[in-house]
Specification:
Layout lengths: L2 H15 L3 H23 L12 E5 L3 E5 L1 H17 L3 H25 L2 E2 L3 E2 L2 H23 L5 H14 L1
Helix pairs in contact: 2-3, 2-4, 2-5, 3-4, 4-5
């Protein structure tokens, strides 16, 4: 009996996320960041900061250096969960991309200028800073492109769907 409401909620979520391309992009970023956060906590969950900050660097796929600590994991986990939640509505998805993009660019800039940490808390490396830069640019671009086209209305989509059912 518990499965039926869960299934209904999961289906509503999936349909909402696929409502517009920008929502799907926000969902993809949310899933990507959430997965990164969970994996990073598994690699090195230390939450120390300042002079006692520690980190762990592994070579992902044998050649991609990934430096993490608990703060880095939390950074990805929080931005990822926000993306998963906000992807259900178009306006929220656009807002998420337009706010999270600059946030990632700021973290990347602080990483480039701070060496191996951001504000003495979040462990980073050059590769991670480049990845954060690309993620920020892609999020900003997706958020900007979503505002260029016409805004789909629920009524127009419902009429279109009803018209297709009547013809088919």
């Amino acid at each position: 009996m518990l499965f039926v409401p869960f299934r209904a909620g999961a289906l509503r979520y999936v349909h909402a996320v696929f409502d517009t391309p920008v929502q799907f992009v926000a969902f993809l970023f949310g899933a990507w960041f959430t997965a990164n956060g969970v994996i990073a906590f598994g690699i090195y969950p230390d939450m120390a900061f300042g002079g006692s900050m520690h980190s762990c660097t592994i070579d992902f796929l044998g050649f991609i250096p990934v430096t993490v600590n608990g703060w880095h994991a939390l950074f990805h986990l929080l931005t990822g969960l926000a993306g998963l939640v906000l992807a259900t509505r178009r306006v929220r998805a656009v807002t998420y991309l337009r706010l999270c993009g600059p946030f990632y660019l700021i973290v990347a800039a602080l990483g480039f200028t701070g060496g191996y940490h951001v504000l003495g808390m979040m462990a980073v490396d050059t590769f991670g800073n480049v990845v954060h830069t690309v993620e920020g640019i892609v999020m900003l671009t997706a958020g900007a492109l979503a505002t260029l086209g016409p805004t789909p209305s629920s009524a127009a989509r419902a009429q279109s769907a009803a018209g297709q059912r009547d013809r088919g």
